[in-house]
Amino acid sequence: MTLLTYQVFKTVAEIGSFHKAADILGLTPSAISHAISSMESELGFSVVTRSKAGITLTNYGEHLLPYVNAVLNSDESLKQVIDEMNGLKTGKVKIGVFSSVCTSWLPDILKSFRELYEGIHIEVFQGTYDDVAYWIKNGVVDLGFLSVSSAKDIPIQPLYCDPLICVLPKGMKNSGNPDFVDIEEMRAHQFVTQRECTDADIQNFLKENKLRIQSNYHVVDDLSTIRLVEKGFGICLMPELVMQDIPYEVDTYPIQPAACRIIGIAAMNPDFMAPAVRSMYNYILENYKNVK
């Protein structure tokens, strides 16, 4: 099998369509279909399932995909090393981010990094903690921002301790200490919560403090959560970084006991990176540690 075959398989897996993969790769749909069929003949098993709904990976295909990504990433690394030896700073970096880093840090990172390395192309993938962790493990991205608690077995370099705060409807607080919200005060309120893959650090705080919350509202994104709080459907906990430039009328308070999520930059093999990836990794470590 050739690198082109691997690229065809990777693109079909990501897009779920022979026709769309053909457009992206500059090939005909029949050439895409032939490449996949030839791959399957050589392997001795099917890697995709064809249906009217589109193309999906078989179990064998799912198992192969991380290895195919590794081969393609190795080829990209080789090209970058050769360019570096020729005095060129080129290559591609694929980076995964969750929402608040995407809105707060990423625009500045992209702009300032590009000014230093014009020849390095950056591709961004936004998702939940679980999405970013999956992308890192399966070679979809080279680097990813995660919280330390969500990284689990993925090597991660801590960057910033982002305090957790309590968000209440405007003017709602009329009991307890006027300067913070403690566990006992939280127990008296209904919560608006997010899925654990989105706010793992908040879920950990609730469990550690034996706070069994009541919630009829289980949403995914930060803005939806805060909007429901604004309209009086409950309170929520949020990392402080999320609350920057929020357009909704809510009050925020420190919590007791204090807690934070630790944001870091993660990569599966930090000691073995392509030159462009290493440049981005080191740039983030040098310029965004303890930056808010």
TrEMBL record:
Gene3D superfamilies given in the database record: 3.40.190.290, Winged helix-like DNA-binding domain superfamily/Winged helix DNA-binding domain
PROSITE patterns in UniProt: HTH_LYSR
Protein keywords: DNA-binding, Transcription, Transcription regulation
Pfam families: HTH_1, LysR_substrate
GO molecular function, one term: DNA binding
Domain named HTH lysR-type: residues: 1-58
Domain of life of the native organism: Bacteria
GO cellular component: cytosol
Record's keyword annotation contains Transcription: yes
Recorded family membership: Belongs to the LysR transcriptional regulatory family.
Designated name of the protein: DNA-binding transcriptional regulator, LysR family
Organism encoding this protein: [Clostridium] polysaccharolyticum
